[in-house]
Amino acid sequence: MGDLDTKAAVLLDFWVSPFGQRCRIALAEKGVEYEYREENVVGHKSPLLLESNPVYKKVPVFIHDGKPLCESLIIVQYIDEVWPHRAPLLPADPYARAQARFWADFIDKKLKGEGHAAAKEEFIGILKLLEGELGDKKYFAGDAFGFVDIALVPFVSWFYTYETCAGFSVEEVAPKLVAWGKRCMERESVAKTLSDPHKRRERQRRRDKKRAMKAVVLLDFWACPFGQRCRIALAEKGVEYEYREENIRGDKSPLLLKYNPVYKRIPVLILDGKPLCESLIIAWPDRAPLLPADPYARAQARFWADFVDMRFFEYGSRLWKLKGEAQAAAKEEFILILKLLEGELGAKKYFGGDAFGFVDIALAPFVSWFYSYETCAGFSIEEAAPKVAAWGKRCMDRKSVANAVSHPDKIYEMVGVLKKRLGVE
Known about the structure:
GO terms for molecular function: glutathione transferase activity. By secondary structure, the chain is α/β, with parallel strands linked by helices. It folds into 4 domains: about 10-80, 3-Layer(aba) Sandwich (Glutaredoxin); about 95-190, Up-down Bundle (Glutathione S-transferase Yfyf (Class Pi), Chain A, domain 2), CATH 1.20.1050; about 215-275, Glutaredoxin (3-Layer(aba) Sandwich), CATH 3.40.30.10; about 295-420, Glutathione S-transferase Yfyf (Class Pi), Chain A, domain 2 (Up-down Bundle), CATH 1.20.1050.10. It is built from 20 helices and 8 strands. The chain has helices spanning about 20-30, 45-50, 70-80, 95-115, 120-135, 145-150, 160-165, 170-175, 175-185, 190, 225-235, 255-260, 295-320, 325-345, 360-365, 370-375, 380-385, 385-395, 400-405, 410-420, and strands at about 10-15, 35-40, 60-65, 65-70, 215-220, 240-245, 270, 275. The strands form 2 sheets. The protein has a 4-stranded mixed β-sheet. The N and C termini lie far apart (about 50 Å).
């Protein structure tokens, strides 16, 4: 990689970026030496940044032994996995680990996305949800400073700005969260990284009980590609479960509202009475591994699965939700997304190589949407990305996929109904 000849670990970052600050705190907690390279995020980006993150072209990027990693939460997980014996950031228990990822993802989606632009009332609601998860614990995971704390703490230095711009007091609406932020600021890793007052918290919960494979329930909706991911994964693992169809357009079941009070949506996997939400977080640890054993390959798989959620799904939806020039622009972007995925797939059978895995499960449910995308936007996926089209056919030959995904005609029929509701037709 071109411009890289110094330390084995290099962080491309911008001093005030809360996402880069996550990486710096994690590296400090682990005692890892690295080279910090400041990026000009508002001007000309360095060739190293553009080479290392050609997909998003943004900081932070962590380069380890010449191999780049992007997206702060993926980087922090990688750091925890590569240096596992020093200050563990994620809990050992799979359920607690999944819950930590859920709340870190919640922070990204709400504080990073909706949260910053949300009305004051919505933002206060987010603070209260986080405070409810924190409870009376020292950190989010208990006594140990961890993954969720690292995800949230950089935003604590923004509290003063939020309060001043919106005219309210964070301490009045979420006093435990403010106290948590002050505790975090007493940690050397946080104090030396952040530009201001109190930040960070979160760890996860229990580490005891091994699980017996009983009571497994999936709350889902037949056409939901995110729920289909869970069904494919469960089939690959050979896990028996009870499927419960949810009425996502009408009255949601008390069970759904109880087990996903944060987002109030499917899919929800209930394991021995413990709920897990968000399709990419829901997983099963043994039998037919879906993620690679190598920490770097595992982090890359999470990156591309996240890319499917953030880019492929978003622009695929625009193909049938929009029309005219807006739809044409979405189609152009969607074809670029297909080409990026095709570049990552290359000549491999599946995204992970010969083994069907995590990225394949993330993308496979959308194969049944290809016909709707093509028909609504007037193009051919096979012409734009022949390797992705061939990969989709291979996936459909797998029993786990064929039994989970919907027929393209049924999806197209549903899309027609949705378009009428949206007034697109």
